[in-house]
Every structure is written in C-alpha cells, then in structure tokens.
Amino acid sequence: MLSMSENSRHFSRPWVRSFIGYLSFTVSLVLGFTTNIGAKTERLPPKRSLVPPSRTICTLILHKSVGFPDYLLDAQHLDELRTMRKLRYPYGIDPLVEPDAHIQYGAESEFVLWLDHKFGNRNPQIEKILEYYAPPPEQMTLEVWRALTIDQKMKWSEKNLSNTKFGRLYRVKDADGIDFLPPSIHRDFGGNLEFVLDPVNTLEELWYQVGKLNEMFGTGSLQASVSVKDTHFYGVGLGGTRIQASRKFKGQNFFFQELDTLTKLRAGYRKYQEAVKEDPKTTFLAAPSFAHIYLGPLKAVHVERMDQLLEEFGATVENGGSIRESDSLRIRVKINETSQKYRGGTVYRPDLGAGQGRSVQEIRDANTNEGILFDRLLRLTHFIQNGYGHFEAFADLQGVDHFADFDRLPQDVREMLLKIIRTRTGHFHSPYFQLDEERDATTVARNFAYPMKNWSQHIALLSNWLPPQMGKTSTLGELVADAQTHYLLSLRKTAAEFHKGTISEAEVASRVHGALVTFAAESGLAETFENYYQHHLFESPKENSYWALLAHPNEKSGQTIFQNAYEGDIWTGPIELRLKKLQAKWPNQVKIVDQVLFAYDNDAGNLEAEKKSPRQLVILSKAGLSGDQLSQLSQDYLSAVSYQTISFPMGQNPGYLYARIGAKTLRAYQSFDEWNYRPPSEKNIEPVVLLNPAEDLKLRFYLNRIRDNRESVIGLQEYRGAFFDIPDRTLRRNIPERILDAQNICAIHNCTSWFTTAPIGPHSETLYQLMGASTEIEVHTNPGWWQSYLTGLAPPSRVPFVIHWTDETLSDASQHLKSGQQFRTWTYDRK
After folding, report:
1. pLDDT in tens, 586-632
2. If you compute the radius of gyration of the chain from its CA atoms, what whole number of angstroms results?
3. ∠556-560-562 over CA atoms, to 5°?
4. Helix, strand, or coil here: 658?
5. How many other β-carbons are positioned within 10 Å of the β-carbon of residue 496?
6. What is the spatial distance between Cα 234 and Cα 247, in angstroms, rounded to a whole number?
7. Residue 549: CA atoms inside 13 Å, Cβ hemisphere, count?
8. Where are the alpha helices (DSSP H) in 199-241?
9. For residues 70 and 51, what is the distance between their CA atoms, to the nearest angstrom?
10. Are 6 and 168 in contact (CB under 8 A)?
11. What is the secondary structure of 730-774 as a DSSP string?
12. pLDDT at residue 350 greater than cutoff 50
C-alpha cells in the first residue's frame, strides 16, 4: 500500500515507473485492437537488453479471472523485446490537442519478511532482495552488511526498519536492464518490504518492469494504479455533465466490484466442493477475502463516501480548482471503514494523484496473481479508452449494509458470526483504520451479510442477461431468492450445531464460508454479470474491440489470428436472421426446412442411443448455376455463417475431419493444411456449431498457434487419437501424454481429436465437452462419429442448423427432405 508520505511521489519513482511500464505494455498491446483516437506509437531505441520475463504471466488469466486472457495478448503479436510503446488516451480526448492527457500507470509490490515468524520460517524471497538493497552507510557499511548471514540481515531489518520509523534500504547492486528498480525500499505498516515503482506512460514499460521484478525476486503482493487527468475523470470539457461523468464512473466501478466478487466466490465454491468431497469435516475457508479487513465486498458506507468525494472533488475541478494534497484529504480518504482503500477490487483513490492533477484508480485484489493484475489493467484501460457508457445504470447498485443487512440474519446466526469470523487486531493494522477494538475485530463478520443485501437493482438491470441454460425454469430474481433462502437455512443449521457445541469452531468457519460461496454459485449472478460484460467487451461496434482485433495487423506478418479467413462482407446478428437473408437473396437455390430428423448412429463411439434430433436443414442447391454464380452463392453463404460459428463439411464415409472457420477449410494430420472453402463436388452435410465470442477468439488463437508450430501445440499424430481426457490442457499446449498398455504405446492426436479437444471453454473445457459429449464415448476421436454426434445428439442450441449442398434442384431435394421426416440414409462410418 502507498503510505501517506508516498503520495506525492506515486507518479515519480523508478519502481512505480517500471511496474507501470510493464503493465502499460500489456494493456497497450492487447488494447491495440481498440481504435482510440490519436493513439501514438513509437519505438524506443534498444539502448539496453530488455530480457523478457521468464514467467508466462498471461496464461494465468485464462483460468483465474474474467477478462482479457492470453489469446488476446498473443493476438497482438507482442514485441518480444518490449521496445515498442504506445500512448493511450481516454475516450473523447484528441492527443493533438492534449498530448499530455494520456493514461499513466503505477504499481507496487510487497514482500513479507516471515512466512511464519513463530517458527522462524523466513520468506526465501527476502534473501535475494537483501543482496540488492542495504542500509545507508551511516547505519552500516556495505562491507559489513555483505558479511552478515541472511538470519543476521533479517534480524537487523526487523529491528531497524520498524514500521513506525519508516526505515529504508538502498539499492547497492546493479545489473543490465534493472535501472527501473527504486533507489530505496521501505517497510510498510504491515511489516512488509515495499517496492514502489515510478509511474510510466505506457503499458509496455510496465509490462517489462513487473516481469523483470518478479523474475528477480519472485512475485510479491501486487497492486497497480491507472490515472487520467482530473479534468477528464470528472468530465470537464468533454460534453455531458460532471454528474453524468461521475455516474458513469461509479457504474463501471460498482459493476466490476460485483463481477469480481461474485466470480471469486464462485471459484471458491468449486474448491469448497472438492474439499468437502475429500473431507466432510473440512476446515477449508473458501472466501478468505471476506474475512480480511482490507478487502471484502462493496459496502454501503463505501457508496456513501464515494458520492461525497465525487461531488466535492468534481465541483472543485469543474470550477477550475485542483485537488491538493493535505492531511484533511488523507484523513477523509484513508480513515476507517468508509475509505475506498479498505475494499477489494479496483478502487477510487483521489488522494494518490492529489497535487498532480490526476485521478487514480487502484487495483487492490490481485495479491500474488499476476494474471488477475494484468486482467484488471487491461480491462480498465479498455473502458477508459472506449467509455463507461454501458455501465451508467449500475451507479445505483447497493453495497452490503453492515448493520441493516446484518440484522436481517437471525440472532443465533449473528451471534455465531461475531464469535467465529474475526480478524487479527493490533499493530498489523494500519493506524488509519480507526475503529474500536471490538468493531475492528468483528467488522469482517458483517461481510457475511452480503447475500442478504438488496439485490433488486441488480435484478432489474440484469434480468435479461441471465444465460439461457440457467434461465430455463427460473428467472434471475427467483434464483437469487432461492439462493438467499438456502443461505439462511445453511447458516441456521450450522448455528444450531455451534451453540450445542457439537462442531469445532474451525468447521463452523468453513461451513459459513461454504454457505457464502454456495450462494454465489446458486444465484446465477456471477454468470449474469459475466454475460453482460462479455457482450460489451466483444460485441462493440466494428471500429472497437472485437472487430478491430480481427483487423489489427501483426507488425511482422500483416495478419492477426486467422484474419485471412474473414475477408469480404461478414454478416452479423442472429444466425437465424442471417440464413433467412441468404434464402431471400437466393430463393431458387436456398431453402430452410424445419424439424428434419437426424438419427444418431449407434455404431458411433461407445454410446448406444436410440435418438433422433430435429434440426433446421439448410438446402443449398448448385443446380443450374454457372461457375461465377456458384462462386457468388458460396461467398454469400460464407458471409452468412462465418460470424461466430464453425462447421464440419463432410461427405459419407469421411476419411479425415475437415473444419470450416470463416472462409477457410482446415485439416491437420501430419501437417497443417488450409484452403479456401468451396462447395463440395458431391452431396455432403455440414453441421454448424455456434460459439460465443470468447470461444470463437480462443479457437482462432489455438488454430493460429498450430499453424505456426503444429508439433509444439498438439504433438505428433497417428490413427487412434487422444480418446482420454488431457490434463492441464491449454491453448498453447494440448499434447496427450498417457500410456495405454504394457507395450508403452501412447495415444496421440489423430485427424479429429486435435480439433475437438481444443480447450476453448471458460474453464478450459474442450469443444466436445461444450457440445455435451463426454470423454468416455470417444466421439471426438473419429470424423464420422463426430459428425453423427453433432447431427444426432448435440444440443440444438449449439448445433441448430445442418447445411446440405446438393446437385439436385430445390424441388427435387425437397421431395425427400421435409419437416418432421428423417434425413436421407447417411453413412458416417470412417473409410
């Protein structure tokens, strides 16, 4: 954390500069796909060797957070030497008019001295830090310092770097590429050694510096900040009103606070389920942030205080004044539970940029997770560049009221929570968090009233964004109400056992945490927030994020991920309307037939199923067309289906799996082959699979990496295929490694499994799993089985259409392809 004395130097320290630079680069490159007015790019002279971080930071995002994952970063073809930097400007700013109004970045990293002080278990990261930093000469000469053992250095540091004395250590060692390291580090109020990097102007610099810092010393507890000029932050001179600008900022801040809280709790639910399965009396705590005095959810007092600060400071800036650093400002921003500083997530910190004409948002929930840190930076930068308009309505969201909402819990539950859910007190807390000792210890218990708060505004705003698979039988309001009821019942049951003394306090705490994360999992709120967020991240206008990413060229090759597969006119909107548009344009060649039955072949895979699934059949007739006309029909067909779909065009007895993505047909077996899609020369069927934007982009990333280096991503290939689940699969490496029998024969990918096991789901689920198939039935290992499964058993919501090219006229083809009838006899067996 930045102490009060650090504020004026927040944007001027080398360490902050470096951390910011590294972060800036990441956001910059990922956000290069947004069309920001006047974004400036320049190449820095390679005056020193910038060693890329040894840790793959971006891959963490895929698994641990919601936002810009590694495929988006990689899609920008990041400059390996980190020498490219790009100034980014907020929405509405013309850099030619205000060249100094670009976004800036800051950061810090904290390292604990002891992992367990009681047992003398020191943090191994400290030894390396104390090689580079030493006391000032007046306290100890460098020669004496270097002669000390690590234990002696630790004892000296603990004694002389008291958090009340603000003692410092100074950098005494240099190396290539580390000039960004701060000249000194100090010990903060929590007793941690704290690096504060100087601010930087680009994410590129920050990206490099953070990676280098983590490479040198290991990953500490990370925080970062993003700032814009006060006048932009409060909407002065940008059109609209200051009140509107404040509401838009509040809306996005509250929206992402809730999104991050709910998804974090949902992740805790999965871990809790595993812990209970392993040990029904588990003491695992699934929601640790809720028991942390500095973290936890958005509170009602935070909302109230933010309103006050935005009004006061906004009026000051609007009237031509500036926010000045003062003890009064520090007190109002930092003291007690009303401070934005004391909540998890990305928070409003007007004190950090005071006196510098900048307003700061600070990212406080990354801890040691580099992926989350970069996700938050990328996300925040994206919406600063593109505006907060989508979130204005969320300015009225309610935080949890530590008293009114807590009192909605039964008395026996309240007593249990106040007894069990406590936090440490004393010198470990910042002196700015001023509560009486009892409130200090028990305030975290009141966080567990979170499920009982007023969700009416959330439900009103998001009721139409509940994912279809969750809203089949219940509305969002009903899901939330049911989850609240289950939460209360679970707490009451635990409270009864607690008061009888039949359960340990550790088990009680675990169950309370478990009830909280279960609420998040059952309410549907996390998925609803995600759905809204993903839509506005990926479904921006063509000049923004998703579409601009497709058009953003690689500096070296001139291509992005499969950009060449999306040339020409691409129709957007619901797939049903696109195909009706195609039918209207070609009434004599295209016909959509509803409810055509496709029978699943019992010989396909290891599943016996007597099922016939109705699909919409799209008949495409080539009869009577000239070569140019057929080419135009094919082009229009691709315009209709390319957007967020893939398909698998195959005739009977397929020998290989062929996949269409955009306007390209792909095949991978011993090599990676691609060619322009063309209508088949014989009858075929082509099931169309719908993907959401994130799945679509992940798949392209996966395919692009295979095209660049097939064996490093999917390994060698042979006939049988990867018929088992592949552990630890990623978009970068999806190689089977499992021995089949005593002869040490290993299963490796074949012509089908390399594609069907693409881990494109939100939690790395494979394509075949997203289609409802399981590993055991093996339909993902055979082109005919896969086609049979998609047409005969896959959910119609995922595979609503089957394309059928034919040489017959529409009238002839329609004679035996009618609604309610089974599709013609079709052989799926592999050659």
Report:
1. 999 999 998 888 877 655 555 555 566 788 999 999 999 999 999 99
2. 29
3. 130
4. coil
5. 14
6. 10
7. 28
8. 205-217, 230-233
9. 20
10. no
11. -SS------B-STT-PBP-B-TTHHHHT---STTS--HHHHTT--
12. yes
Contact call for residues 177 and 50 (beta carbons, < 8 A)? yes
- Cβ neighbours of residue 663 closer than 8 Å, sequence gap 6 or more: 565, 566, 567, 568, 638, 642, 676, 677
Instruction: Decide if 302 contacts 258 (C-beta within 8 A).
Output: no
One-letter amino acid at 676 equals: N
Residue type, 223: Q
Q: What are phi and psi of 654, to 5 degrees?
A: -65, 140
Tokens of 91: 């929405």
Type of residue found at 815: Q
Tokens linked to 816: 């035996």
Q: What's 360's DSSP letter?
A: E
* pLDDT of 331 higher than 50: yes
Cα–Cα dist 30/18, whole Å: 19
Q: At what angle do helices 205-217 and 370-386 cross, to 10 degrees?
A: 170
Whole-angstrom distance, CA of residue 165 vs CA of residue 186: 10
Angle between helices 476-500 and 525-538 (to 10 degrees): 140
Helix (H) or strand (E) holding 516: helix 505-523
- Identity at 164, one-letter amino acid code: T
CA atoms within 13 A on the CB side of 824: 14
Lookup: tokens for 1: 């954390």
Residue 209 structure tokens: 């510096």
How many CB atoms neighbour CB 681 within 10 A?
10
Q: Mean pLDDT across the stretch 516-542? A: 80
Per the structure block, which two tokens stand in for 306?
A: 């933010």
Distance CA 58, CA 70 (A): 5
Asked whether the beta carbons of 38 and 86 are under 8 A apart, the reply is: no
- Max distance between CA atoms of the chain, in angstroms, equals 97
Provide the whole-model pTM. 0.64
β-bridge partners, 109: 195, 222
